[in-house]
Write a structure and sequence with these properties.
disordered N terminus; mainly alpha; disordered C terminus
């Protein structure tokens, strides 16, 4: 019986461990600052519950065993813990280490830090955030600019990102100039870019605000740079429109070349090669340029002034035929009239005209990327 009692603890099985906690998502702030334990093989992830965050807030509010006093502009004093400040901010860590070295081993002496230039309430929100990574929405709206400055000055990157995001959502005509200047000072590149784009799109109402007038008085160079960027953006927009219009023209020319091959090879509606029998009930043509080319070809066939330089419509037809010959991949099997003749005539053209045709053909090819197409080839240019 004694032996059974002695062996019973050995055979007793251990209970199964509880399951790992599921991913916790409650708000954008908590998701952003969720801690991930990458080095642990057992605990792959975890989250900070609300009760723990409340405990950290309580630690700040009560100042239990605080060893740092923070002086603000209005003469107020906040109490904090050096370990909390130092672990969240390398700037605080350096400041507190320096003050620690100057104490020369004196015990019971509380270190002091002064944070000036921003409202005292903004300092309180800033320090509280270092404890629990939380803030009140109304406080962020009221002190967003000050918190951006503090997070940049004390290198609190996660708060800086949050401030940038919050300010991005609140851009308007009245505050965009102030936010833009502050974003430049705080090296918030994305925020400054969004502000700059906003000002370019709404320059007239923005330039009438008090913020713009203040910037004009205090930073005239910055105002000139913004106005210059408006001019540059306008030039770029006109250039984009011009290139788009050119590309549309080159696309239309390419489609006209396709339609010409289609007419001369297969026939379309009531016009086509002499050895083709056109069907009256054929399907509608999907080439938009066919109708115009059909009229042009009929005019060209019956016009008495179809020599180059005579009729303007015939001149256009000559140009269409020559352009086709420069794009054609194989003149020996091509059904388009005069294709081979134009290729032979090309040798007698002067260099200036030849260069103009080459530039045109290259632009058409690049606009459609037709190199290696069934009927056209970039190599033929």
């Amino acid at each position: 019986m004694n032996e059974k009692n002695e062996e019973s603890p050995r055979v007793r099985t251990l209970p199964n461990p509880p399951p790992l906690p599921v991913a916790f998502t409650s708000s954008r702030q908590e998701n952003t600052f969720a801690f991930v334990a990458r080095k642990s093989a057992v605990r792959k992830y975890c989250y900070t519950p609300t009760a723990t965050k409340n405990t950290w807030d309580c630690l700040f509010d009560e100042g239990y065993r605080a060893d740092v006093s923070i002086n603000t502009d209005n003469g107020g004093i906040l109490y904090a813990h050096a370990s909390i400040l130092g672990i969240n901010s390398p700037v605080f860590k350096s400041m507190l280490s320096l003050k620690q070295s100057r104490r020369h081993g004196r015990c019971g002496h509380q270190r002091s830090i002064t944070i000036s230039g921003v409202p005292a309430e903004a300092v309180q929100v800033f320090i509280r955030f270092l404890y629990s990574s939380r803030y009140e929405e109304e406080k962020m709206k009221e002190h967003g600019l000050s918190l951006l400055v503090l997070s940049h000055a004390y290198a609190v990157s996660h708060l800086k990102r949050e401030c940038e995001w919050q300010l991005e959502q609140r851009l308007n005509t009245e505050n965009v100039v102030d936010i833009f200047q502050l974003a430049l000072l705080c090296d918030a590149s994305r925020l400054s870019l969004l502000c700059h784009r906003f000002m370019l799109k709404n320059l007239k109402p923005v330039s009438a605000t008090e913020g713009w007038k203040a910037m004009k008085d205090s930073h005239p160079v910055l105002e000139k740079q913004i106005l210059k960027s408006v001019i540059d953006e306008d030039i770029k927009e006109k250039e984009r429109v011009r290139k788009n219009n050119e590309r549309k023209i080159y696309m239309q020319l390419y489609e006209a070349m396709e339609a010409l091959v289609h007419i001369c090879k297969d026939g379309c509606r009531t016009i086509g090669p002499h050895d083709k029998v056109l069907k009256e009930d054929q399907e509608p043509c999907h080439y938009a340029a066919c109708k115009g080319l059909e009229l042009l070809i009929r005019h060209f066939a019956g016009c008495k002034l179809r020599v180059p330089g005579g009729c303007i419509h015939c001149k256009r037809m000559w140009q269409v035929l020559e352009l086709h010959s420069r794009l054609c991949a194989n003149s020996d099997v091509c059904r388009v009239p005069l294709c081979r003749n134009f290729k032979q005539k090309r040798r007698k053209q002067n260099k200036k005209d030849e260069m103009k045709w080459r530039i045109l053909v290259r632009k058409i090819v690049r606009s459609k990327s037709i190199s290696g197409a069934p009927f056209f080839s970039f190599e033929s240019t």
